[in-house]
Design brief:
This protein has about 230 residues and is α/β, with parallel strands linked by helices. The chain has eight helices and 14 strands. Strand 4 and strand 5 form a beta hairpin. The protein is elongated and about 60 Å long.
């Protein structure tokens, strides 16, 4: 199946150059030079990867990343002349998957696009467990017909538990993977609170959970029902 790549770059020559460099039977392209056009396209179409310039005539790419992340985990690679450490960190913290500074090698761009699409291919985004349906790609979470609103931290915890269903996960492992680079500012109480909030939203009886069980002295597990 062909992968749809959305290129958002106001410089027409560069926009066309990126399309030419990535040209392949495996890819189809949508080219936009303004954020407004990209937003309209995204409302009506799914895409597999977004190449996004940060500085655009009608808005900031970082703000668009944040907007996308409210509803989608589509891979996003930022392309920009802003090359300071702060610029890069800001882009990644907003939700971008990668960051390429101008001028850049088209060969490197091809490689990074391939990596992001390969990662997406190997990622399971939908989990259906008993009465639950968790779609991490679309950020849709249901218990029966009831939609559940989850914070980003709750989503990360839930995903790790679902991906490791039946396994006991140490508290230290969960903290490392949920808060990632912010671990030094997080204590175990934050994990306890996140687990409680997730149980309150998913479990029939949060005080006696069926799914998110505590393994005393070790951590937590998403229990497999016998």
């Amino acid at each position: 199946m062909e992968k749809q790549i959305l290129i958002i770059e106001d410089d027409k020559k560069l926009n066309d150059g990126i399309k030419l460099a990535l040209k392949s039977e495996e890819y189809t392209f949508e080219q936009c030079r303004r954020l407004s056009d990209a937003k309209e396209f995204c409302k009506k179409n799914d895409t597999d990867l977004i190449l996004l310039d940060v500085n655009l005539p009608d808005g900031n790419g970082i703000d668009f990343v944040k907007e996308i992340r409210k509803t989608s985990q589509v891979p996003i690679i930022l392309i920009t002349v802003n090359n300071t450490e702060l610029d890069i960190v800001t882009g990644l913290e907003a939700g971008a998957n990668d960051y390429i500074t101008k001028p850049f090698s088209l060969m490197v761009l091809r490689a990074r696009v391939a990596v992001q699409l390969r990662n997406t291919k190997n990622t399971v985004n939908v989990f259906e467990i008993d009465d639950f349906r968790f779609d991490f790609g679309k950020m849709d979470f249901f218990k029966g017909r009831e939609r559940i609103d989850l914070s980003k931290t709750e989503q990360r915890l839930l995903r790790i538990l679902c991906e490791n269903k039946g396994a006991t996960l140490k508290r230290s492992y969960l903290i490392d993977h949920i808060w990632q680079g912010d671990v030094e500012y997080v204590d175990e109480h934050a994990l306890t609170v996140t687990v409680k909030r997730l149980r309150d939203k998913l479990e029939k009886d949060p005080g006696n959970p069926e799914y998110i069980k505590t393994v005393y002295g070790i951590g937590y597990t998403w229990a497999i029902k016998s």
